[in-house]
Design a protein that fits this description.
mainly beta; Porin; 15-stranded antiparallel sheet; 2 helices
């Protein structure tokens, strides 16, 4: 227990140090503005802006394995139109470090590529965004232990409510099922819900919570973390920068390889159309 506590102590401080370093690099390059509406929309996954995100999950302890892991995500989002309909596409590719093989040795490589396209439905309220559409995951992992070796497809549904300049909330709901690939592997049949909430404190600073709850319909494994973090939005004439760090702890889980605790960090950028 002492070893795990020391591990957590230094992991948290390293994450805070990296966050402060990024803020120190970006802040002098831009005008430190409150951001106004930009601060409220900086975490909107359906915002009408091109976005590129660098996000990382450091997982300090995995259930039943007593190992750590890491997921570094490259995410790109782009609005587009089909005739009179408006859509947004998001592609996500992880670089994964995870214990694999009979000896559970740490292995690092690319994971599976996920892409979804959400049709944006007119809610009648410009502050409320709602989208739904298909998603697909391709078996791009560089090692069998880092991916499913299967093609899977399903849907993605997103809601973001920015009616209040102080408090924004919403969710990302996804589900996918195997339709091709290695039949010797356990079929992919997973659902995930990411509720998110953001409280604006002024001058671009905000509190946040955006855990991802995952359920595996094949074996009934699940993971339910909760977290609270802090972020900073910095707006320039052409780019909105968003830096954050959010520690998360598991409140319920089942099955091996679920995160007992993790630190979610990100450096997001939004560019006008």
């Amino acid at each position: 227990m002492v070893k795990i506590s020391v591990h957590r102590y230094w992991a948290r401080r390293c994450c805070i140090a990296v966050f402060c370093l990024l803020a120190g690099i970006v802040a002098p390059l831009v005008s430190a503005q409150d951001g106004g509406g930009a601060a409220a929309q900086a975490n909107n996954p359906l915002a009408n802006m091109t976005a590129f995100n660098l996000q990382n999950y450091y997982i300090g302890d995995l259930t039943e394995i007593d190992k750590h892991a890491n997921q570094f995500w490259l995410r790109y989002a782009k609005p587009f139109s089909i005739k009179d309909s408006n859509w947004i596409m998001r592609a996500s590719l992880p670089l994964v470090t995870f214990p694999t093989g009979p000896n559970l040795s740490q292995n690092t490589g690319l994971g599976d590529l996920n892409v979804f396209a959400a049709y944006l439905i007119d809610t009648g309220n410009p502050a409320v965004s709602f989208g739904i559409g298909p998603q697909i995951t391709a078996p791009t992992a560089t090692d069998t232990g880092l991916g499913s070796e299967q093609w899977s497809a399903g849907f993605a549904n997103v809601l973001f409510n920015a009616s209040s300049p102080k408090f924004q909330y919403g969710y990302l709901l996804t589900w996918q099922h195997r339709f091709a690939g290695n039949s010797n592997r356990t079929d992919v049949n997973t659902g995930a819900l990411q509720p998110f909430a953001f409280y604006q404190m002024g001058k671009g600073w905000y509190l946040r919570s955006a855990p991802i709850w995952v359920y595996n319909f094949e074996n009934d494994d699940y993971s339910v973390p909760l977290g609270v973090g802090v972020g900073k939005v910095i707006k320039t004439k052409k780019t909105v920068y968003n830096l954050f760090v959010e520690p998360q702890w598991s409140v319920a889980d089942e099955g091996p390889g679920q995160p007992e605790w993790q630190v979610f960090m990100g450096f997001n950028m939004q560019f006008p159309q």
